[in-house]
Amino acid sequence: MNAHLPILPVLIPVLSAAVMVALSRQDLVLARVLSFIAAAAQLVVASLLFAAVGEGEVLVYRLGDWPAPYGIALVADRLSAAMVLLTAALGAVLLLHAVCAWDRRGRHFHPLFQFQLMGIYGAFLTGDFFNLFVFFEVMLIASYGLMVHGGGAARLTNALQYMVVNLIASSLFLFAVALIYNAAGTLNFADLAQRVPTIPSSDRGILMAGGALLCVVFLLKAAVVPLQFWLPGAYGHAPGVAAALFALLSKVGAYALLRFALVGLGGASLAALEPLAWLTLLAGALGVLAAPTLGVLAGFASIASIGVLFVGLAGADAARLGAGLYYLVHSTLAGAALFVLADLVRSVRREEGDAVLGGQDFAGRALLGGGFFLAAIAAVGLPPLSGFIGKLALLRSIPVEGGAGAASWVFVLVASFLLLLGLSRAGSRVFWKTQGDGGQASHGPAAGGVAALALLLAGTLVWALVAGPALAYFTQAAQALLEPGAYVQAVMGAGVYR
Amino acid sequence: MRMRSRWRRWVPHPAVSLALTLVWVALQNDFSAGQWLMGVILGVVVPLLLRPFWPDLPQVHSWRTAIVYAAIVLWDIVKANVQVAGWILLRRPETLRSTWLVVPLRLHRPEAITLLAGTITMTPGTVSCDLAADGSALLVHCLHTEDAAATVAGIKSRYEARVMKIFGEGDA
Amino acid sequence: MIEWAALVALAAFGVGVLLCAWRLWRGPDLVDRAMALDTLMVNVIALIVTWGIWQGSSVLFEAALFFAMIGFVSTVAFCRYVLRGLIIE
Amino acid sequence: MADMLIAALLLVGAFFGLVGSWGLVRLPQTMQRLHAPTKATTLGVGGVLLASIAYFGWVRGEWSVHELLITLFLFLTAPVSALMLARAWLHRERERVRATLPRPGAPGVDWGTFQPPPEESGSGAEPRR
Amino acid sequence: MEILFAVLIAALTAAGIYLCCLRQVFPVVLGLSLLSYATNLFVFVAGRLTVGAPPVWAEGVTRFADPLPQALVLTAIVISFGMTALLVVLAIRARFESGAERSDVPAVTDRVEVER
Amino acid sequence: MSASAIVALPLLGAILPPLFARAGRTPALLAALAPSVIALVLLWGQAAAVFSGVSEEVRVPWVPALGLEWALRIDGLGFFFASLILAIGILIFIYSRGYLAGNEPIGTFYAYLLLFQGAMLGVVLADNLLLLPVFWELTSLSSFLLIGFWRHLPDGRRGARLALAITGAGGLALLAGLILLGEVAGTYRLSELAARQELILASPLAPAILALILLGAFTKSAQFPFHFWLPHAMAAPTPVSAYLHSATMVKAGLYLLARLWPVFGQTDAWVAWVTGIGAATMLLGATIALFKDDLKALLAYSTVSHLGLVTMLLGLGTPTAVFAAMLHVLMHATFKAALFMNTGIVDHETGLRDLRRLSGLAKVMPLTAGLGTLAALSMAGVPPLNGFVSKEAMLAEVLAARWGGGWPLWGLVALAAILSAAYAFRYFSALFFGPLRLPEGRLPHDPPAPLWGPPLVLVVAVVVLGLWPGVAEPLLAAASAAAVGAHAPWPELAPWHGFGAPLVVSAVAFVIGAAMVWHYRALSGRVLAWALPFDGRRAFFSAQEWLVRGAHRLIARVHSGVLGRYVLLLAVVSLVALALGWGMGEGWRPQRAPTPMNGLSLIFAGVGLAAIGLVVRWHHERLRAVLLTGAVGLVVSLAFLHASAPDLALTQISVEAVTTVLLLLMLFFLPQHDAEPVAKPRGAAAVSILIGTAVGLLAWVMMRNDGPTLADYFWSRSVSEGGGSNVVNVILVDFRGYDTFGEITVLGIAALVIYALLQGMQEGAARGHLHAWRFPFTLSPTRHPLPFAVTARVMLPFLLMAVFYIFFRGHNAPGGGFIAALLLALAFLIQYMASGLSWTMHRMRLDAHVWIGTGLLVAGATGMAAMGLGAPFLRSAHGEVHVPGIGPVPLASAMGFDLGVLLTVFGAVTLALVQLAHLGQLVGFPPGRTPMDPARPKPSEKEG
Ligand code: NA
Ligand code: NA
User: Is pLDDT of D105 > 90?
Assistant: First the structure.
């Protein structure tokens, strides 16, 4: 069983979804039961996987027993195991919200949810970049399904745009894969890392054209300026539970970029991305000020968090990269919390929905207001939640001497201030500027959603409390990214079965 | 009698099963026992699987006529091809006397009508274009004819009569 | 001799393809275009088979079979669309 | 001898294929052009397929008859394609053509393109299954 | 031959991107189809061009096309087919939800009707 | 350890009052008091040690890598502030019990106050440069909640946001400053900073660090020019104003200045900025306070002024000035908290706080008047009250200061003293004395004990500290010593120092102040005009409005929702990336010989290019465009066929057919032409051509490039280890079967989403639009032409045979599960088209969902079978099974996988197409009854 740990996160959701599809097209209860069982199993497996790589082992799983680079290898190291665990946890938490609010509003919610998780796990675990493409597609197509769940004109039209943009991006992904295969003759990250130094300079143009294009694709998924345009509309109108899960989706882009650039291209630094990270921060923060609804606001807050994340990833040292990765986990939880919150507000306010406007009082206002307060604290990066630690770690790791460092400081801090302005403005409008006594008349937020929100926020608190070991863990993970020797050796050398 | 009915239950249309078996072996280009066996199995299974898709499949009443019919059609195809090629290549298009013909049908089985319409189309110079709403006549477009009535008569005698015989529709 | 004949045949069907393409371009009617595409498919089938003879390889046989089938589906679907709008009703 | 036969079949196929395509270009009316595909289909492809069977059988010693399957499909499908194309054309041109067409014969009966089948006429809404 | 493939890929890409820029959904769907042809050909030619040597193993054959890009393209074709089908249906649904077939949406700062 | 408890008790105790509030207001009060009282007891348990100079420390590692630790330290300074925070907190809690109305959520209120208290204790006890900002921000956040507690008041909401914005911004600056400070100092322990003063000051970053930290301190302590948030924070309930905005939170900045005094306190920059800003704030606050009629505004500006005063003292750079500062912090806390509570009573009883509409209240509320008057006199610095003691000390320090040459600063201070006396006099004289003026219908009287008790306690302190200031001496000495890092000869604290310059100034101030109040009416109009031109709040909110509007405009442009722009942007970025990437190589030359071209390829390329061009030209003629796209697909599949990829050709052409069907189905639901006149976007054309050219060039380069490939491995092991000679298929189902597994999952998901999307159209807006919609063209009345239906029936079994054929041979020749599935789907599609939806659907045995689910399970199970045998997922096995009578039959486990592929793909394609067709039934296409028309052909009567 333990030997199969790296494949199980992919197999559990897909097989449970297949059973749901085959057996329970109309039976929601069965689907829910299966979904919860699957979520629990994923949590267990992800925890085991996490435990298995705790000492820095790199688990390599050779599918079909073919050696890399000929077959596809799954690789679980510190980073991917942590991402898998994060996904499993987020999925399980959001399932609570889903069963109370969403899974009845359309067909096939649960299979799509499981497929979505499958795609994300697959993307985190694969060591092969064409396979990464395949799992990106699994992830994306499931996301289209979840995005349109429940219907509605704005949701549908925005989803359509999201889909078109992503289809073009998928084409670009394939262009890039082709170029890299043509120049390097491999599809495997580790193998590529080995081969890059041997590629003649005349052929580097082909390789790097592919590499750069692949980076564009990952930056688009991650919603880094100038490729952030798709996110607020798509996520802002998506069902809350889907949007909350999508908080993780954009991180997959960042993850893939790291894996590809740092491991695949053999230590290419992402320093060139620092200015883009600044602009992303600014765009997200300004968007939060301009957002007409809490959903869109959550989308822009996600963009801002991507900016912070990339300020971290742009570093070429383990401390900074580690800080970025720590922040990645935080921003996933915080982003998900904001999306769930926007969804809950939408569900209880009759007239105004989640518009950033005052209006009739509504049931659960105090509860949701408190939730928003905490989620905003998390998003801005104020204590005592983990955003603060993340930002602290990041700033500490960036030497302020020299233009870029200082600029990063300024952008991070100014963007935090703008976020503070925007979020306090929105929160005071929605939760304070109310009138009448509609609170008694309307129904309150669903318990599952509130539970999910509470768990996510508690997650950010816990993440802050365990920041010491967490940061150490991610610093080691970052170190492994920067010196991928062990990774390459594990993948290319003798593995579990060969 | 009992044996026969049981046999017929599993292989309601031996001709179809045989055709499928032959197609299988032909596709494989392998005339080994295994492939024949496989072909027979598929030849039995596939029609059973697809039984709902072809209710009241007609039996061929006269195999002899069918073979003769096939030969005639093949010959007509060759003959007419040459003729039509001549028209296309040698005549000025304006001089072609294209007309619509009505071929009243004595057939009533869908399969028979289809076979006749297909024959008309496959023999160059004529194309079956439509069927009357009640199935009583075929609309045929003729690329060039001097005598429309004769052409219709030719179709009826040369093809329709034989098709009727093949499907046992003489008394319809 | 076979090779020579095959070459002639390839050329003939190639020209056939061009003629069909011309009709596809000119129309004038939609039906003309559909018909042109259908005929083009037929030419392509002939080309594939001839090419197989020329190359001495039967690996392309399935392709010819598929073109035969698929040309039919497209043509029929197209006509159904013109006649009934909804091609599966 | 075999070579000559094969070559001849190829040339015959090529000739009729080309004539069919040429007809498509040269004939002035859509309905006239509809005759072209059948030509290319029957003798054009037919000739080539026979040549192929003969070639692989005689020249290369791999007797194969699977080409016949292509012929089978073409012969099955071509008439339907032609019929549907013709109906599509009749339907599109109905304003102009309908009056000039000969009628099927029985009074009150028209071609299927223009008139619903007897089962359907009269009943506006049909019961769902 | 390489030139022909390159020109075809170029034309497909250009036409695909151009159609994706238009303001209605149908041309975008066509554009994406063309773009996916371009993509498939592009991935395919990453394995170089080989004429008359399909990658089907037989005794003594040494010249063969690179099978890997072919396998990748197969996967890509299937995926893009699934995507196209979904896009088509999504476009239909969006057209009937919103009452219009447009590829644009209101700017994200505009407030639209709440979708619960 | 008790340090942790002192901080944690209020923070954790914050959950108690909301719980106890259900039992009543007094239980809530007790629940709030308990943590504070215990914390105070614990704190004073340390008193002896602290006064003797020993500090208690707690250190628990939190994030060692960052230097962040849970480090608390009780030294004199912390002890002093913590005492203030807890003691005044307790009084405020009691007072709030009386102040808040019965229907207000007092539990929540106490919870916020306790959170604040804990955070504030954290600020003053933290011994870590990074822990301090944690608590610092928490005070801002709890302050935000408390200011906005009356959320129905627009002023409350805006005041809260204003305060949060200003103090939050300062907090960020402070955070930056403290991080850098720790970095430069090499330690994040506050207690170790003094020892590293030289190191810190030598750093080039020192000025920046100082500036950032001062920014934090000045914003928090409402120093000019950030003072304006404080008066607007007065929208909070009065206990909040008394506690946060006069006695404690605003003093966090002062605390910080005192804390960092040993490091920066004697630098020139510090002296200049801190003293200067402090003095300016002092004067400005006092001036404005004098002209405020709202009691709370008056007190707020007076607080600004007094905070300025303390700041100025901390800036003077002498230890004794620090002592004076601490002294004033204490004194100010007592009299100002008392005054706020007093105002609260007046507000509570009269419903007003306006000096113009109230007077003579002493007649009806004598106790209140007495307390208020005493506290105000102390604020004015009248002996023998405690305000006099600290004012004396302050004047003495200023006189001794080196900055400003002594006298100029002295002049400023004297002016402030005059103004301060004036507004203090005005407070009590205008409010309590003179003729009784009241709002209609109110009968105010002295309040119940919870409201007057706490101010009484404070006023007693005012008097006691005024008469016997020496009792505070140990506390202040300890605080000052901790602040300056050494014991200095502290000034003697006495109620009376004899006659001297300070006393003269005081006396003069009283006289002039009294005169100003006397002639207030003449004064106010004129001075008001020049003193208050600047409305900070309005400026802030208009700046924010401007920012929001700018952001709105920018975001609306960037996120315009126009797909075309997004696509072009993506294309341009890709072009740039390609160019940059290509630029990293050098000197590429063609390495492979070109493949010869033949006429046929030229012809097809020409046809393909023409078709592409025509699709672009005719995209608005949609049906035509579909047809031409089909032609393009044909050419592409021929290209595959020609370049030795028969599998691809088969796949492409069958996908092509299904796609055509799909597009035609789509066209049924969409207009046949583009709705608007087609504008030719030139920019799009240019960019498209550019990216097309780039991609084409790269394709050409790839084809002419030599490089490593994996092909040989696959070729050599396909048969021996994969068990199949069609290498492409073996890759698909074996070498890279996992990709295929993902791929069929994609297809399955697509079908599920399509199903969900189409099912969802039967409700909501879509249903309405759908019902209103009609296919715009006349239809031919016959549904299923007989010859087509019959032909379809004939074809079906043969197609099925072909499916089996393609499926079984796939491993060794072109074919396989996917292609077979498409063929199967096409076979039934023909049936659907020929005989209709319902007829055919009722003859399909299984729902398409079952196919999809089963297919995935079959594929997965085949892969997992290996896992049961201890091999990884998808490990294949192959071999020959000897069947008697038939001979060896080659079998590969991958075939099971391929079967899964077949089932899934067939299910997905059928589900998608059939559901789409099903939709047609919603738009006036009821299902036909017959599978062929005519169902019963009639022989011709004429002939028959
Ligand atoms: Na004919
Ligand atoms: Na090379």
Answer: no
pLDDT tens per residue across span E80-103? 999 999 999 999 999 999 888 888
Q: With beta carbons less than 8 A apart as the criterion, state whether F123 and F135 touch.
A: yes
| Residues B43, B121 share a domain | no
* Residues A289-298, mean pLDDT to the nearest whole number: 96
Please give the distance of CA F736 from its chain centroid, rounded to a whole number. 42
Taking only Cα atoms into account, the Rg of chain D, rounded to an integer number of angstroms, comes to 21
What is the H or E stretch that residue F58 is in? Answer: strand F56-63
For residues B87 and B109, membership in a common domain is answered with yes
Same domain, B94 and B48: no
Taking CB atoms and an 8 Å cutoff, what residues of chain B touch F796?
A: 50, 53-54
Q: Cβ contacts (< 8 Å) between B139 and chain D: which residues?
A: 101-102, 104, 111
Contact A416, A65 (CB under 8 A): no
Write down the pTM of the prediction: 0.95
Q: Determine contact: E87 vs chain F, CB below 8 A.
A: no
User: Which domains, from first to last, does chain E contain?
Assistant: 2-50+64-98 (1.10.287)
Distance CA F465, CA F570 (A): 72
C58 contacts chain E (CB < 8 A): no
CA distance A288 to A294: 9
Contacts C15 to D, Cβ<8 Å: 18, 21
CB contact under 8 A, B107 and F937: yes
pLDDT confidence tier of residue D124, bands split at 50, 70 and 90: very low
Rounded CA-CA distance F936/F414 in Å is 116
pLDDT digits (tens, 9 = 90+) for A58-100: 999 999 999 989 999 999 999 999 999 999 999 999 999 999 9
Same domain, B119 and B143: yes
Give the chain E residue whose CA is nearest to the CA of C60. E54
Look at residue F823 in the predicted model and tell me its pLDDT. 93
Mean pLDDT across A1-16: 92
Report the separation in Å between the CA atom of E63 and the middle of ligand 2, taken as the mean of its atom positions: 19
In 10 A of CB E77, how many CB atoms?
A: 25
Domain count, chain B: 2
Question: What are the two backbone dihedrals, phi and then psi, of residue F698, each rounded to the nearest 5 degrees?
Answer: -65, -40
Q: Could you tell me the pLDDT band of residue F443, with boundaries at 50, 70 and 90? A: confident
Decide if B103 is inside a domain. yes
Number of structural domains found in chain A: 1
Residue A303: closest CA among A253, A369, A241, A343: A253
User: What 3-state class would DSSP assign to B102?
Assistant: strand
Within 8 A of E54 by CB-CB distance, chain C residues are: 59
Question: Mean per-residue pLDDT for F675-703?
Answer: 90
**What part of A 218-237 touches E (C-beta under 8 Å)?**
232-233, 236-237
Secondary structure element (H or E) that encloses residue A60, with its range: strand A59-62
SS3 (DSSP) at F294: strand
Task: State the distance from the centre of ligand 1 to the C-alpha of C30, rounded, in angstroms.
Answer: 21
Instruction: State which residues form the domain around A84.
Output: 2-490
> Residue D129: is its pLDDT beyond 50?
no
CB contact under 8 A, E54 and C55: no
pLDDT digits (tens, 9 = 90+) for F710-736: 999 999 999 988 888 999 999 999 999
Q: Does residue B76 sit in the same domain as residue B27?
A: no
Flag whether E touches F (3+ CB pairs, 8 A cutoff).
yes
User: How do residues B114-171 score in pLDDT, each as one tens digit?
Assistant: 999 999 998 888 999 999 999 999 999 999 998 999 999 999 999 999 999 999 886 5
Domain around B112: 63-167
Bridge pairing between strands B126-131 and A359-360: unpaired
Question: A286: which 2 tokens?
Answer: 């300004």
What are the backbone angles phi and psi of residue B100, rounded to the nearest 5°? -95, 140
Environment of ion ligand 2 (residues, CB < 5 A): A 203; F 705-707
Q: What is the mean pLDDT of residues D117-125?
A: 59
Say what the pLDDT of residue E116 is: 63
